[in-house]
Amino acid sequence: MRVKILLCCLVIFGFVLLAFSQSIQLVKERNRGLSYSLPIELKNQIAKETKGFKESDIINYGISLTTKKLQFSKRNDIKLGKANCVGYAQLCSAICNYALQLNGYSTTTRPVVGHLELWQTNLCSVAKNIVPNGYKNFVKDHDFIEVQEHNRIYYLDPCAYDLLKNPLFTLKEKE
């Protein structure tokens, strides 16, 4: 029963995100200390497929490949192709950084922890108040990637892209 309630809440939450995605902001709280090491087969694939790509093409490629490699799950096990937002951010960042480095760009990405905000309301806090107790820790925050490109920083959400086909984009000028 609880799983059905959680799924229902997530579906409703997803439709709200999709409906209001233009007003949603990704708000960074801190850096995620975890990183992911790409297996050699994936490195070879990335090297072959991104040769000569522009920076923006590499970022789009990273999001696309991440969504092909992972399926959303409560457990985070990238090697088995199952991940939550933490795994999506880790894999996407690793893919992007590897391809950017191979192509000689100084742009970098990293997984960060934060929350989704709609009209200055923290949606993670809202979700935490409506899900069953066993899931409160799962929705307390949200991981996405920070892209540092030249004189700007922006955030992208590969997990939201996979679930909603909307990468949720927030641009912030570098301080």
The name of the CATH topology is C8orf32 fold
Which blocks of ≥5 consecutive residues have pLDDT under 50?
Answer: none
Radius of gyration: 16 Å
**Domain module tally:** 1
Structural class: alpha+beta
How many E strands?
8
Order of SSEs: HEHHEEHEEHEEHE
Major beta sheet, specifics?
6 strands, antiparallel
CATH class: Alpha Beta
Structure write-up:
The chain has 175 residues and is an alpha+beta fold. It has one domain: C8orf32 fold (Roll), CATH 3.10.620.30. The protein is built from six helices and eight strands. Helix 2 (40-50) crosses helix 4. The protein starts with a helix and ends with a strand. The model has no long low-confidence stretch (mean pLDDT 80).
Short description:
Helices cover 44% and strands 25% of the residues. It has 175 residues and is of the alpha+beta class.
Keywords:
single chain; 175 residues; alpha+beta; C8orf32 fold; six-stranded antiparallel sheet; 25% strand
Q: What's the topology here?
A:
Blueprint: H1 2-19, E1 24-31, H2 40-50, H3 55-69, E2 71-72, E3 82-83, H4 85-102, E4 108-118, E5 121-122, H5 123-130, E6 142-149, E7 152-156, H6 158-164, E8 169-173
Helix pairs in contact: 2-4, 3-4, 3-6
